[in-house]
Structure formats: C-alpha cells, structure tokens
Specification:
Radius of gyration: 41 Å
Number of strands: 6
Strand content: 5-15%
Length: 470
C-alpha cells in the first residue's frame, strides 16, 4: 500500500476553454463584439498592447474596486474618530478604559483635533482596500497560467491577438463554439486543457509546514508572556545596530582626524548657547552694577550676594533670619519675579526707531495677542475660546492696561516676557532679546494709546483733524 501511495498520480485533463487567434486589433475588436452579442459571457481578450475599445466590445462590467476603496476609507474614518473619542474622552475603572487628558483647554471630544489621525487612517485603509482588492478581483497572485503551455499563445507579447472563451460559460459547446470562432475571423483555434500531474504531497512537507507555523507563533507568545513581568536580564535586541552603534567614545583615539583624537575642539568663534551674555541690561533687564560677590558673570551665575557665613540673602529670607540687624524682606509670591534693580530705560543696544516699533508690533501679534488680545485687554482668541468652554481650568490673562502693569519698569516687563509669570510661559527660547525689547517698546505705545491726548498726535495729524472740523 505504501508503494502505491508513492506512485505518480495522473489526473484526467480538464478542458478550460478555446483560444482563438486573430490577425490584428481591429479583427480582435470585431470578433469580441460578435462573440458577446452571441451570448457568451466568460470571454477574455489578450494583446501585446492596450487596445482601445476592447472593454466595450467585451461588455466588461465596471469594477467594484471603487466601492471597496470607499468602504475601507469610510471604515478608517469611523475607526479613527471612534478610537480617539474613546481613548481621550471616556475614562473609567473598567479594563482598557480611556484617559481624559486635557490639552490646551480643548474639549475631550474635539473633532478638529481628531482630524490628523482620522485622515491618516482613512488614507491607510483606502490604500489597503485598493491594493488587496485589486489582487483579489484579479485572482492574484497566480503562479502559473495554463495558457502559457500553448506555443501559439507565446506570440501574445509581440504580435499575437487572442480571444479565450472559457468552458465554464453557459453557452459553451466545444464544436459549435469552435465553428463560431472560425466564422468570426479566427486564424486558428486551440483547445486549452489544465493537466495536473505529480505525486501526492509528502508527509514531510506537512510536518515542515506545521513546524514553521508553530515557530512563527513563538515570538508573539513570548512577547505576550513577558509584557506583564519584570526581569533582571538584558532585553533581546533584534536590531543591534540601533543600540550598539559604531562610534568613538570620549577620550578615545580616532584615525579619522590628523591629530588622532575623537573629541574635537569647538570651531573658532563658537559661542555656546546661553553664554557670553555680558550685557546684563540687554539680556536680563537689570542694572549691571557690581555685586558683593564680584562683577556680573556669564549665563545664570550672577548677582550672588553672600553673607559672612556663606549663606546668600535668599537663604536668609527663607530661614527667617535677619541680616545686619534688619528684618529680612518678605519672599515674593509664587509666580512673581523677585524684586530686583530693574532698568527703567531701554538698553543702549536697543535703538528707539519706527522700525523697532513695527518689529515689536509684529512679534506681539504673533506671540502675545493670541491670549492678551490685539489691544492687550486679555481677550485674545485663545482666551475667548477657553472662557466659553467654562471648564474652570483657564486663568484669564491680566489686562496690560491696569496700573499694576503700566507702572512696572521696562526691565521687569522684559523679564516677564523672558521667563513668564504664573501660568504664562517664558518666551526667551523663541524670541530673541532684541525682539523682546521691541515688544516692550510696542507695549508702551499700546498702553499710551489708551490715554492718548491731542498733544500725542503728530503735527500733520492735528492739521488733518482741524481741517475735518472746519
């Protein structure tokens, strides 16, 4: 019996249909029209190039691929919105609950904020539907086509034009169909069979396939098993080049450079970020007089006034001690800048010109008006939106026209713009020192505009107003 199982098993040939060859594209189109008009449905045409009009001649049905793409895209859109609404708007004690995370005062269910992810999922699933739908509708991948056995069909890539009528067609009758194809101009008709010869699949292949399938499950099973456990062993690195890159460590020799060192000296003239800020008035808004500890230093190391026992004045204030028999000054409120000797005039490096004023207005409208408003009244678009939500998490910005602000020295206003105050963030990383002073200059003009008098107007404007009154 085992010997019989290993013998070659020859199957009866299965008739697939008739292949008819035609002289040219015009004859192919004419024949396709006559064949489909005669009632044949399962007909396919083959040519070495695209033949215009063959689809109409074959009465080919419109593909449903656009509907597949539409349904997949719609599914991606709904999945994206539902996923974000659940993850960002539904928090609870159940398993896999969402997490209500407030971002910039936006509502938990914010369709505009969900658009990027929703758009990406829509495009992604649409692409999947288009690609895999095309493969499925074309019955691909297909490793072999029985038509390739025909020597006649080899001309299809050069000058051969063919019609193939499938045997599965309801109107197919071999003798009548062959005669009909000859009558519509076929130069040759050939029967195509699907002959399958070979052995039954060995048991070893079944065993190997089972082993491969089992091995493929080991990695996801291992990841699932270790996802909720801890270990002292180093993790498994599948891509070692991402963690163990070829590089030169500090203080190691390097053959790349002439001096043989891996560490390089800074390029001549290089200034580290946050350093070389010697102009204290320009970069900090404070007076540059020398302190007890010495002259103003670089960066943040400055104005460290020490007492005899080594403690700074700030430490005395924090500990409630007195310095030189005097009561220590009260510590500033949370979020308030420490009272210092702020400058009351613009630094010498800042030129008070119309160009500086215009620059300050531009920077103010970009960075400040979103919260403070274009007039500085604390009614910017972000503030209006946050207040309308009434979530209780937004602090309305202080109006820039109240006395507590208008009486501040320019140095303190500059410090507030640089380092922020209370919930307002600092902007020294985004705005240069010169532009921050330009904002201060424009702010002074904005404050003065609220209490402007006739004397503040230029002479030409006064003449225009006088002429209007006349």
């Amino acid at each position: 019996m085992s010997e019989i199982a290993n013998l070659d098993v020859t199957h009866e040939p299965k008739r697939l249909g008739l292949l008819a060859q035609f002289a040219g594209p015009d004859e192919l189109i004419a024949a396709a029209e006559k064949v489909t008009d005669a009632g044949y449905k399962n007909v396919e045409a083959y040519a070495p190039f695209a033949v215009i009009g063959i689809d109409e001649a074959l009465k080919a049905k419109k593909t449903i691929l656009p509907w597949i793409v539409f349904c997949m895209g719609l599914s991606g859109c709904l999945i994206g919105i539902t996923m974000q609404c659940y993850m960002n708007g539904m928090e609870g004690s159940w398993w896999l609950a969402g997490y209500e995370f407030l971002i910039s005062g936006k509502p938990f269910f914010s369709i505009p904020a969900f658009i990027p992810v929703t758009f990406e999922l829509t495009i992604l699933l649409s692409a999947f539907g288009s690609f895999f739908g095309m493969l499925a509708l074309n019955k691909l991948p297909r490793l072999f086509n029985p038509l390739l056995r025909s020597e006649r069909f080899a001309d299809v890539t050069t000058d051969g034009f063919f019609l193939f009528v499938e045997a599965a067609d309801a109107k197919y009758a071999e003798a009548e169909t062959e005669a009909f194809l000859t009558s519509v101009g076929a130069t040759g008709v050939e029967a195509i069979n699907d002959v399958v010869e070979g052995r039954s699949l060995p048991a070893a292949i079944h065993l190997a396939g089972a082993c491969v399938a089992t091995a493929a499950l080991l990695v996801p099973l291992y990841l699932w098993m270790t996802s909720s456990t801890t270990t002292s062993l180093p993790r498994i690195s599948l891509f070692k080049d991402m963690e163990h890159q070829a590089k030169f460590q500090a203080q190691q020799p390097s053959p790349i450079f002439d001096d043989g060192r891996s560490m390089r000296e800074p390029i001549k003239g290089t200034v580290a970020r946050g350093r070389n800020l010697d102009d204290i008035e320009l970069y900090y808004g404070e007076r540059a007089e020398l302190s007890v500890a010495g002259g103003p230093g670089r960066g943040d190391l400055r104005f460290a006034s020490f007492n005899n026992d080594g403690r700074t004045r700030a430490q005395f204030v924090a500990e409630g001690d007195e310095e030189d028999g005097e009561a220590a000054a009260p510590a500033p409120a949370a979020g308030e800048p420490e009272e210092k000797d702020w400058v009351t005039d613009f630094p010498a490096a800042i030129k008070i010109t119309q160009e500086t004023m215009d620059r300050g207005e531009q920077r103010f409208n970009i960075y400040c008006a979103t919260c403070h408003g274009l007039t500085g009244a604390g009614d910017g678009l972000i503030t209006q939106r946050a207040m309308s939500l009434n979530q209780g998490t937004w602090t309305q910005p202080t109006s820039l026209h109240v006395e507590a602000v208008t009486t501040q020295p320019v140095g303190r206003i500059f410090n507030t713009i640089s380092n922020g105050i209370r919930k307002m963030p600092g902007y020294k990383e985004q705005i240069s020192a010169e532009d921050r002073w330009a904002i201060v200059l424009y702010l002074q003009a904005l404050q003065r505009s609220q209490k402007a008098t006739a004397e503040d107007l230029p002479a030409d404007k006064l003449r225009e107003i006088s002429n209007l009154k006349k």
